[in-house]
Amino acid sequence: MIRRLGVLSFVFTACTASAEPSNTPPTTPVAKAKPSADEAPDRDSHAMLLFPTIRIGMGGGIHPHSGGGATGSFNFDAGVGFRFPVARRFGLWPELAYSSATDDFFGGKFMAVGIGPLYGTSMLAVGWSPRFVLGAARGELAIGPRNSLMGSVLYNILTLEIGHQWLHTTSRDDHEFRFMLALDVAPICGFFLAAHAVSTVAGSLSGR
Questions:
Q1: Single pTM value for the model
Q2: CATH code of domain 51-192
Q3: C-alpha–C-alpha distance, residues 5 and 17, integer Å
Q4: Rounded to an integer, what distance in angstroms lies between the CA atom of residue 168 and that of residue 133?
């Protein structure tokens, strides 16, 4: 009889203890901290990169005459420079170029140098191209500015420029509205060199 009362007392105590509310606060899941902008993975595989440029361009120009009318010219440019990033989508492009125009009245041979801003990626970028032009036109010293809007695609392989050039000489001033389509051979050479290196390494590994 005493043993039964002890068992009943133990069961009653256990049930009472399980029925009482717990004082332990419920646990809440801890949210994972989001990575900061600096820690976030870089998903932009076409951000503006640092690379040299060797451009060869051909185009045309329109030279208005002070007395009315205009003449056209064939223009040729060849320049070297490099593009370097300042921010993810912003860069600068310094360039030194040789430039010539075939117009009988305003043609000549010149050197053009300048640096301009670019916005975009290595696949597509737009920018402003200011240049200081110095050379000879009709046997006279020619000096003046050139300003162009430009766009480049495919790692700068193709570049389109549309702009205006003003040249001052001893006898007259020349305003030229010009357009130019240029091919950059630097990335093309880089692609061929990389392909040749990969082919050489693959051939040496397969020959072992």
A1: 0.71
A2: 2.40.160.20
A3: 18
A4: 10
For residue range 69-117, list pLDDT tens digits in order. 888 999 999 999 999 999 989 999 999 999 999 877 778 999 999 999 9
Classify the C-alpha dihedral 147-51-188-99 as positive or negative: positive
Buried b (16+ CB within 10 A) or exposed e, 5-38: eeeeeeeeeeeeeeeeeeeeeeeeeeeeeeeeee
**Distance separating alpha carbons of residues 184 and 87, to the nearest angstrom:** 23
The residue written with tokens 């440029």 in the block is 53
Q: Residue for token digits 């091919």? A: 183
Helix (H) or strand (E) holding 85: strand 70-85
Distance from C-alpha of 133 to C-alpha of 145, rounded to nearest angstrom: 6
Determine which helix (DSSP H) or strand (DSSP E) holds 190, and give its type and residue range.
helix 185-206
The model's pLDDT over 27-62, given as tens digits with 9 standing for 90+, comes to 555 555 555 544 444 445 567 778 899 999 999 999
Radius of gyration of the chain (CA): 36
Residue type, position 29, single letter: P
b or e along 51-74 (b: 16 or more beta carbons within 10 Å of the residue's beta carbon)? eebbbebebbbebeeeeeeeeebe
Domain parsing of the chain, residue ranges? 51-192
Q: Are 53 and 82 in contact (CB under 8 A)?
A: yes
